[in-house]
Amino acid sequence: MKFSIFSIARNAMSYHENWQAHWRNPEPKSEYEVIIIGGGGHGLATAYYLAKECGVRSIAVLERNRIGGGNSCRNTTIVRSNYLWDEAANLFEKSMQLWEGLSQDINYNVMFSQRGVLNLCHTLQDMRDAARRVNANRLNGIDALLLDAQQVKALEPLIDISPSARYPIVGATFQPRGGNARHDGVAWGFARAADSRGVDIIQNCEVTGIRIENGMVIGVDTSRGFIKGKKVGMVAAGHSGVVAAMAGLRLPVESHPLQALVSEPLKPCINTVVMSNAVHGYISQSDKGDLVIGAGIDQYCGYGQRGSYNVIEGTLSPIVELFPSLSRVRMNRQWGGIVDVTPDACPIVGTTPVKNLFINCGWGTGGFKATPGSGWVFAHTIAKGEPHPLAAPFALDRHISGALIDEHGASAVAH
Amino acid sequence: MLLITCPWCGPRAESEFSCGGEAHIVRPKDPDALSDAEWADYVFYRTNTKGDHAEQWVHTYGCRRWFNVIRNTVTYEIKAVYKPGETPAGGEA
After folding, report:
1. Transmembrane residues, as ranges (chain B) (predicted)?
2. Are the CB atoms for A95 and A370 separated by under 8 Å?
């Protein structure tokens, strides 16, 4: 079934009661060429590009719960590629380019909206860092503009740029191609597109062990029995350490709660995505009208999908200082996701010491924007058995070799 | 917000404290003798336990002293608080 204006018209005749399920719910087969552990956006995108770009015919995605029920539905949906260092910029820009054609490619409206991303500067040093990052972005072919306070005000009329503000705004960087997308739609869209290419998406199937023989992976034990696999990719986000431990691997990763919250719906009032490194808050407005507000990670390790209230307070108070007219807006919902954070706040994508076992984790607080790019490079990594050139700098052993990518705090928002 | 009992000051709100990560990581006595992998393990690799986790906290906005906490990383329940050099009541960390 292809979505088009004709299919909408046809289904309107039957009061939209005959749309078919977007993906099958198959029983697991006994053997697959590639098994992906984790049915979030990244895992589903990996399966899709494996089927589409790499011609792999037999793929399973194993998900412990339901697809798109973890971090895929718990993020603040921001998409940008304005990273400072070449390695990160190239990877996230690849993702951005995939975003730009994604709805057409997977025939699913992911509501990608390039409304622009502002990264506020509050001090002279912020402006110097911003100018450096804008120049670095431009050298990498990424759109970036340096704005002064008046230009910020023109984009966001509600923002307080008075010099006496608690967090005075000196200027901002602006990436016009940045924006946001509908996070559920991305997971569903990739699931549907992968399924239509024959990928088995197996939900409620928890991986309980990874079987290794002679240093080579041979399959996974699951709550629904043993499944043989020639290659296995681990894309388990917050639980990457737990899954990797099944293969005897220790990771340079710690899992933290990351909180976000949405307000009651309002008329359109925030035009772009506004982020501030210094106060560590970010805000955008969804198409439904709710303000989507994100925080920094909670300081402690946690798998509980919830964090502490002082972090919410620490986020909302500067948001209200930046947008004083939002002070009486009531918050509707608040939640936490589990993010796995690496010491250099950059992802880990690549091979492992176990043959035919691959890992994709450590996206920390910024994984959503990478969904298509992560899937793209990981699919190639799995298919070829060696890292995709864009993923090569993000090897698992970079914390041993010392080739860290010092994006921590250097990117548009401190991770 | 967690309610953390500082061994010196008593129960206080989490916002008075800073978390210092995994506890009981011992600095290698002879760093020159370590391989890169062993050094990386000391500096960067963590157990990231799902369950009871020994971690260090400091009472930043109080007595500014460090101590250890056994906290469950799923329920966030604090099971034991003990001073540096001590072992937690009821077992090993």
Report:
1. none
2. yes
Structural domain includes residue B89? no
Among the four given CATH numbers 3.20.20.150, 3.40.50.1970, 3.30.9.10, 3.30.70.100, the one describing domain A117-179+255-341: 3.30.9.10
Mind listing the pLDDT tens digit for each residue in A10-36?
A: 999 999 999 989 999 999 999 999 999
Q: Which residue among B41, B45, B76 places its CB closest to the CB of A304? A: B76
Chain A residues with a Cβ under 8 Å from any Cβ in chain B: 239, 241-242, 250-255, 299-304, 308-310, 340, 343, 399-402
Asked casually if ipTM beats, i.e. exceeds, 0.90, the reply is: yes
Specify the 3-state DSSP secondary structure of A32. Answer: strand
3-class DSSP state of B22: strand
| Confidence (pTM) | 0.95
Assign domain A25-81+83-108+183-254+343-401 to its CATH architecture. Answer: 3-Layer(bba) Sandwich (3.50)
Which CA distances in Å does A389 have to A287, A377, A383, B16? 36, 8, 13, 45
Partnered with residue A11 across adjacent β-strands are none
